[in-house]
Amino acid sequence: MKPYLLGIDIGTSACKIAVFNREGTVLESAAGEYEVYYPQSGWAEQDPEDWWRVICSTMKDMLSKSKIKPDEIAGIGIDGQSWSAIAVDKQGKVLTNTPIWMDTRASQICKELNEKIGTEPIFQLSGNSLQPSYTTAKILWYKEHMPEVYQKIDKILQSNSYIGFKLTGKMTQDISQGYGFHCFDMHTGTWNEEMCEALGIPLEILPDIYPCHEVIGTVTEAAAKESGLLPGTPVVAGGLDAACGTLGAGVIHSGETQEQGGQAGGMSICIDSYKADERLILSYHVVPGKWLLQGGTTGGGGVMRWLEKEFADYEREEGRRIGKSSLDLFNQLAQAVNPGSDGVVFLPYMAGERSPIWNPDAKGVFYGLDFGKSKGHFIRAAMEGVALSLKHNLDVAEEAGASVDVLRAMGGSANSLLWTQIKADVTGKPIVVPSSDTATTLGAAILAGVGVGMYEDFEEAVRLTVENKRYHVPNQADREVYDKNYKIYRNLYENLKNMMSEEGES
């Protein structure tokens, strides 16, 4: 058996590539950025060909600078962002940019379908309410607004399945990304022909469904030339980035929970039986026989990325002078502010909001400002706002019958000791931090390892690869102030939601 596994992560702002040994140690890694396009209000889209170009250039550069040889890679796993609607023709050519998970352009289509078919039949089959962020309405948006594109569609692909196609020439649909379609039967993991017809989605444009760890093909000669990989290297179907990150954080048993600190925020609770709630998101796990009850929010690490981009000119310059990152200096500013941000409360609805409020018109809000507030208050309130949205989702999950004892954190936000502690304090849940930066690519690599037989099963893979780095215990002394802010957080949205919706309609 060749010694290494390759994980590819197609994120919202960048791709990450990492090579792991059997014990889960990162031997080489690299990242490359690409654009998100916002052509109109409510739109957020990307060009999948940008993903492929950046993956290839990043891969070649990484391999040329490393001691890793392409013929030492035993298998390739791919994870990707959710709810793409990549329209390709029979040759696999991308016909248009894909709306991504933040895109809400299809709101009207969802309203019409929910009225026509009924919210209950859709939810009972798919385990998810019909919302504009999902893949379903985006396909029908093509049909209504881009008929010239729609007529040429051979298949609709997801982010990881598109890269899988570019590597192998095989068009597939992994089971964990099936939840983007409301004609996907969450009970059986299959396409439902009757709901396809009701929704107006032709069954023939939906690829065959594969287990996430199943080998779908091998790297072609053409893909090898573009990427620097070895022809014939096995590629597995891969899966949803949140699900792969959940696996990479060691969550494979019922009740274990991943806390997501990437561009988006939220949590994924592993369950071993079907358990849906219209306010949350239900998907298959990348681990066979498991589901994930998820809370997915638009405000996660992306909130801090936005703050840093717009307001960190001084910190970037000072960071260069003293050898620290601007985010480290942001953390110091936030650390100096009292828990509760002295009454400043932030709604992190920066691109509408997904669960549990499902409002594409929701807006970000800072409340409680006065002349005594500083930049540090904005930063800490942003961190706390993301934590409050996490608590909101956890509360709803517990109402749905999914209990959570411990959170396992992943993503770039988990590198902030302050932010992770705030999340523990706000939610009242202990937080364990494994190797946070690599959890998602590790999860993709584990899928490849199981698929090619490097690991006997997922139990062995997690036992060998996942190591806990830090523990955060809730500070009970701050619970009173956070509970007060949580009430304000919930009341703010309830009092502003009508205004937000009116603004959205206008």
Write the layout of secondary structure elements.
Blueprint: E1 4-10, E2 14-20, E3 26-33, E4 45-46, H1 48-65, E5 73-80, E6 86-88, E7 98-99, H2 107-117, H3 119-126, H4 135-145, H5 147-150, E8 155-157, H6 159-168, E9 173-174, E10 184-185, E11 190-191, H7 193-199, E12 209-210, E13 215-218, H8 221-227, E14 234-236, E15 239-240, H9 241-248, E16 257-261, E17 265-271, E18 281-284, E19 291-297, H10 301-311, H11 313-322, H12 326-335, E20 345-347, E21 365-367, H13 375-399, E22 407-410, H14 417-427, E23 431-433, H15 439-452, H16 458-465, E24 470-472, H17 479-505
Helix pairs in contact: 2-3, 9-15, 10-13, 11-12, 12-13, 13-14, 15-16
Question: What does this 3D model show about the protein?
Answer:
With 506 residues, the protein is of the alpha+beta class. 40% of the residues lie in helices and 19% in strands. It contains 17 helices and 24 strands. The strands form eight sheets. A seven-stranded mixed β-sheet has the order 18-19-17-16-22-23-24, with helices on both faces. It has a five-stranded mixed β-sheet with strand order 3-2-1-5-15. A two-stranded antiparallel sheet has the order 4-7. A hairpin with a 5-residue loop joins strand 2 (14-20) and strand 3 (26-33). The longest helix is centred in the C-terminal third of the chain and has 27 residues, at 479-505. It is globular and about 65 Å long. The N and C termini lie far apart (60 Å). The relative contact order is 0.13. The mean pLDDT is 96.
